[in-house]
Amino acid sequence: MSPERVRTLAHHYKCGDPALVQALSDMAADRKRGWWEEYREILPAALLNLAEVEHHATRLRSAVTVHIPGLLQTTEHARELFRQVVPEFPPPDIEHRVSFRIKRQAVLYRDSAIPYHVVIHEAALRMQFGGPVTARAQLQHLLDMSEREHITIRVLPFTAGGFPGSGQSIFYSHGPIPQLDTVHLDQSHGPVFLDAEAQLDMYRVLLDRLDSRALAPDKSRDVIHHLIRDL
Question: 127: left (phi > 0), else alpha (psi -120 to 50), else beta?
């Protein structure tokens, strides 16, 4: 859809938010085919939508309990996760999903890399998917990524006394403007996307509460170092 078409539709539906119309027009002007389109006939559309949301995000936040966030997973860690899915994925499907997940991580490496703030429960750090060697490499990768200026990794220890939000994994993508923010929840039947303002506000509060209970970045790195030594 062209920027002109966006403006025409906005006028037709009497959208009185110039900032929203401009943001949508700017996104429409970026008409380059997204890398995720090569997976259009291979993976579920919801995964492609996730990659597109991350591509347009200006900032990312997440909080996870059991799994390391996909944007911070190593290739082997991701492969082991997909091998344990029930019902099982055929080997070719596993490799497609692994390559897709790794390509999503480009948002953290590009010249205009976006800020990423993540709270990881200690339980996720102790899960040894693939055995000690794979687990050690994954933890070292987290340490390496935490040294990047735009990435903040904080650990929520078992001693924190709980995980507000019933322990669900939350991914919050800040859009070009607040009206385009999106929450992505991992569910057993697939990803769920939320964008109603009341829902967004609830998850912003929830993420802030988790952040207030998590260890500082330097203390979090100490925890990860300790876990590596124990492997």
Answer: beta
Q: Which helix (H) or strand (E) holds 194?
A: strand 190-194
> What are 138-194's pLDDT values in tens digits?
999 999 999 999 999 999 999 997 777 767 889 999 999 899 999 999 876 678 999
Backbone angles phi, psi at 216, to 5 degrees: -65, 160
Work out the mean pLDDT of the chain and round it to a whole number: 88
Q: Is residue 161 exposed (0-12), middle (13-18) or buried (19+ Cβ within 10 Å)?
A: exposed
- Could you give all domains of the chain from N- to C-terminal order, each with its CATH number? 1-31 (no CATH), 43-230 (3.30.870)
Cβ atoms within 10 Å, residue 96: 17
What is the residue type of 25?
Answer: S
